[in-house]
Design goal:
About 90% of the residues lie in helices and about 0% in strands. The chain has two helices and no strands. Keywords: Membrane, Transmembrane, Transmembrane helix.
């Protein structure tokens, strides 16, 4: 559980660092980058919680 959370936080940090670099390299407007980052975080969070729920259900069963 703690390892999952650490991986989740790492991925957010990596994404927050990578997105501005990509924007700088490709000269994308910041709003597009922010939208992509937001979408990524929302999708990642949903997948993350689904995985945790499935793991918990498997442990119970």
């Amino acid at each position: 559980m703690k390892k999952d959370l650490k991986n989740y936080l790492y991925s957010i940090v990596v994404y927050i660092v990578i997105i501005p670099i990509l924007g700088f390299v490709f000269h994308l407007p910041l709003t597009i980058i922010e939208n992509i980052a937001l979408l990524y975080l929302i999708v990642y969070t949903i997948i993350y919680w689904v995985v945790i729920l499935v793991k918990n259900l498997k442990n119970r069963g």
